[in-house]
């Protein structure tokens, strides 16, 4: 099948497929004499696997690790996948905590709104509040 057909079946775009090929998550497609990509069942299965992982907000690196487990299975296959998922769950729990804290901040900010007052309490609070710099952290 051609890239457009694969994209349609998998529910994604041709650009997504090209991107996954470029970063090595999806195997390179065979080429016709006219240089069109030709995909098979293994591409569709891998693409669906990648899309399912992305739906669970797994990073490309996490997906790469799971693909490595699939491609070279051994006795530790289930343990490796279990550890990776446990790590991902820990990251999700941290994000939930961060979002819960953010929500509390926004509710407090919203409570500063006094429609009958000339000055906007929300804007005033945003100008005056002290914000902790968010440290960018990866879950890998």
Protein architecture, described:
This protein has 140 residues and is an all-alpha fold. The chain folds into 2 domains: 3-55, Orthogonal Bundle (Multidrug-efflux Transporter Regulator, Chain: A, Domain 2); 78-128. It has 6 helices and 2 strands; from the N terminus they run ααββαααα. It has a two-stranded antiparallel sheet with strand order 1-2. Helix 4 packs antiparallel against helix 5. It is elongated, with a radius of gyration of 23 Å. The mean pLDDT is 87.
In whole angstroms, the N-to-C terminal distance is 35 Å
Q: Characterize the main sheet.
A: 2 strands, antiparallel
Question: What is the overall silhouette?
Answer: elongated
Which value, in Å, is the CA radius of gyration? 23 Å
Mean pLDDT, all residues: 87
Give the strand tally.
Answer: 2
**What is the C-level CATH assignment of the largest domain?**
Mainly Alpha
The number of helices is 6
SSE series: HHEEHHHH
Structural domains: how many: 2
Name the CATH architecture of the largest domain: Orthogonal Bundle
Strand content: under 5%
The secondary structure category is: mainly alpha
Q: What is the helix content? A: 55-70%
CATH topology description of the largest domain: Multidrug-efflux Transporter Regulator, Chain: A, Domain 2
How is the largest sheet built, in terms of strand order?
1-2
Oligomeric state, counting identical vs distinct chains: single chain
Poorly predicted sequence stretches spanning 5 or more consecutive residues: none
């Amino acid at each position: 099948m051609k890239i457009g057909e694969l994209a349609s079946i998998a529910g994604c775009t041709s650009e997504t497929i090209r991107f996954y090929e470029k970063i090595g998550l999806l195997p390179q497609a065979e080429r016709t004499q006219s240089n069109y990509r030709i995909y098979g069942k293994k591409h569709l299965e891998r693409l669906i696997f990648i899309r399912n992982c992305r739906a669970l907000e797994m990073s490309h690196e996490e997906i790469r690790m799971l693909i490595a487990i699939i491609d070279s299975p051994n006795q530790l296959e289930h343990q490796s996948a279990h550890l990776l998922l446990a790590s991902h769950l820990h990251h999700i729990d941290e994000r939930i905590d961060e979002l819960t804290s953010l929500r509390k901040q926004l509710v407090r900010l919203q409570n500063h709104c006094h429609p009958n007052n000339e000055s906007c309490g929300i804007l005033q609070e945003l100008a005056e509040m002290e914000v902790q710099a968010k440290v960018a952290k990866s879950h890998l």
